[in-house]
Amino acid sequence: MTKVFVRGLKVDAHIGVYDHEHGRVQPLVIDVELDVAASHCEALGDTVNYETIRTAAQDIAAAGHIDLVETFAERLAQACFDDHRVTRARVRVEKPLALAPHAAAAGVEITAVRG
């Protein structure tokens, strides 16, 4: 088993349930950790390329407004399962401006397991 991770990925997204959040972009900070059924990796094709995680997050953000960070996290976890070797995805999505200046960030962390 191999763990593939991306930490601190910054993505701008149209996200939020409140009226003042509609029509504006907000930063997200994303951490992803994947359990990958791979060992003895010698080449990029032997494992999950973390560029695919960045691309998936950017594609989800570009697809249009999302109300909840939970929805964003779930969509990203499911996108990670596009690689059949991924058996578990932990996705953490932080909204740094959600409670500013009272908190550094607020968000959600989900763990999804391939069914």
Automatic annotation (TrEMBL):
InterPro entries (UniProt xref): Dihydroneopterin_aldolase (IPR006156), FolB_dom (IPR006157), GTP-CH-I_C/QueF (IPR043133)
Cellular component terms per the entry's GO annotation: cytoplasm
Keyword line: Folate biosynthesis, Lyase
GO BP, sorted A to Z: folic acid biosynthetic process; tetrahydrofolate biosynthetic process
Catalytic activity, reaction form: 7,8-dihydroneopterin = 6-hydroxymethyl-7,8-dihydropterin + glycolaldehyde
Pathway where this protein functions: Cofactor biosynthesis; tetrahydrofolate biosynthesis; 2-amino-4-hydroxy-6-hydroxymethyl-7,8-dihydropteridine diphosphate from 7,8-dihydroneopterin triphosphate: step 3/4
The protein's Enzyme Commission number: 4.1.2.25
Domain Dihydroneopterin aldolase/epimerase: 4-112
Gene3D superfamilies assigned: 3.30.1130.10
Record GO terms (molecular function): dihydroneopterin aldolase activity
Family assignment from sequence similarity: Belongs to the DHNA family.
Function: Catalyzes the conversion of 7,8-dihydroneopterin to 6-hydroxymethyl-7,8-dihydropterin.
Protein's name according to its UniProt entry: 7,8-dihydroneopterin aldolase
Organism: Caulobacter radicis
